[in-house]
Specification:
heterodimer; A: 50 residues; alpha+beta; 2 helices; B: 173 residues; four-stranded mixed sheet; three-stranded antiparallel sheet; 7 strands; 30% helix; globular
Chain lengths: 50, 173
């Protein structure tokens, strides 16, 4: 949810290179996840329904 | 609780958060010669996390949290102990309402979700997958908790509170 508030570009560091592949740009990302540390794909999931 | 194999059924240790936070602060907010203190908002169910965090950040860092707020209104909605669903469910309704309000306020400040353009918002968020723990902010220097209660939150009767999700849309919490 915090990634939503940051906005996609700020959260995932977009806007500094060709981001069409959708990879997180770790140099500029502001959403920093310390459990899986980006090992999951995708690293961020929009919703978890249960 | 963690999601990864490494932290399955365990809490992600605070060292993971501080290491990532210190690195993010250097990467995003530090320019050469700039020694301004780190400003951090801590959102945690565990009041003990404040001391742990303090001991692992640069000396002089400014840490804000509901538990350590100078305002009784904020302290009263802070989580008094680590969260366990069964214990929480056994609490009287008034306590559950109050502590839920604390969780939502924590999330609001941590994320900046309801911040207006002129209000401080976090510069980065350090979190686990299951829940977010704290945010690092370069914009929080004005001291977010010394400001008013965000206008997106309104107190209504019976000690309840409502929060604005969008223009004209409110949920009661």
């Amino acid at each position: 949810m915090a990634a939503v508030a940051l906005g996609w570009d700020r959260a995932f560091g977009y806007g500094y290179r060709d981001d069409s592949a959708g990879e997180v740009n770790r140099e500029h990302a502001r959403w920093i996840e310390v459990d899986e540390k980006g090992s999951l794909n995708p690293p961020w999931r929009p919703f978890e329904l249960f | 609780m963690g999601s990864s194999w490494k932290y399955h059924n365990k809490n992600v240790p605070i060292e993971e958060y501080t290491t990532a936070g210190n690195a993010a602060w250097k990467r995003l907010f530090r320019s050469p010669g700039d020694l301004s203190p780190q400003v951090v908002y801590l959102a945690s169910d565990d009041p003990g996390a404040f001391k742990d965090l303090q001991s692992q950040l640069e000396p002089g860092s400014r840490i804000f949290s509901l538990t350590k707020s100078r305002y009784p209104d904020f302290r009263s909605i802070a989580s008094p102990a680590p969260y366990f669903q069964d214990k929480f469910s056994a609490l009287p309704k008034a306590d559950r309402v109050r502590l839920t309000m604390g969780m939502i306020v924590d999330f609001a400040v941590l994320s900046g979700m309801w911040a207006r353009d002129d209000e401080p918002r976090p510069g980065a968020v350090i979190c686990g997958l299951r829940y977010a723990r704290f945010s690092w902010s370069s914009c929080l220097r004005r001291g977010i908790l010394s400001h008013r209660f965000p206008s997106q939150f309104q107190r209504v009767q019976d000690g309840c509170c409502r929060v604005r999700l969008g223009s004209g849309v409110w949920i009661r919490i």
